[in-house]
Amino acid sequence: MVIKNDKVILRDFIESDIEDRIYWETVETEWQLWDAPWENDEESFDLDSYRKERLEWLTKEKDENRTRWEFQICVNDESRKHIGWCNAYKIDDNFKYTNQDGHCTIGIDIPDLSLRRKGYATASWDLFIQYLSSQGVKDMYTQTWSGNERVIGLIKKVGFEECNREYGFRTARGQLYDGLTFKLNWEEYNDFHQQNKPINLVHV
């Protein structure tokens, strides 16, 4: 599946993405300072296991009509450059991760520093929200921490409102930060979306 607007393309994971992700996990790692940095302190990235798992996943038969919970982000120009990913997971009523039924919660990463602040994250989330809505998702959330000011700006711009704050949630780089959960305000999001071109869903 491909979802695109005039700014970005969201598509399914392909084999060449494996080496991109390994590069972002081992070389171009600045993004890890902002995406739950405490996880990077606790876990090491096993590139061989990652490559094996992804190759196995690619060989499995899949329902093309399934709901996607992750897309890879590419620039919508002649290069079709792969620049990151967006994904969704579930949280429970206490705003904690769960692998059971829960509330849809979205996230995004664009590791390439040269491609930040160019509107790609905003365009990607707009597409992802529209897609999930088309799949019947009514309530959407996102989570971050109080030190991640750049992402907080994006979150508010798209139309999310803070709905829960866990004080002293994590320590990052020697400082204590709050954990933040935001819920999408559909009225504010629709106002934001009107400023963007409609999405185009293409099945490939």
TrEMBL record:
<keyword id="KW-0808">Transferase</keyword>
<dbReference type="InterPro" id="IPR000182">
    <property type="entry name" value="GNAT_dom"/>
</dbReference>
<dbReference type="GO" id="GO:0016747">
    <property type="term" value="F:acyltransferase activity, transferring groups other than amino-acyl groups"/>
</dbReference>
<feature type="domain" description="N-acetyltransferase">
    <location>
        <begin position="8"/>
        <end position="183"/>
    </location>
</feature>
<protein>
    <submittedName>
        <fullName>GNAT family N-acetyltransferase</fullName>
    </submittedName>
</protein>
<dbReference type="Pfam" id="PF13302">
    <property type="entry name" value="Acetyltransf_3"/>
</dbReference>
<dbReference type="InterPro" id="IPR016181">
    <property type="entry name" value="Acyl_CoA_acyltransferase"/>
</dbReference>
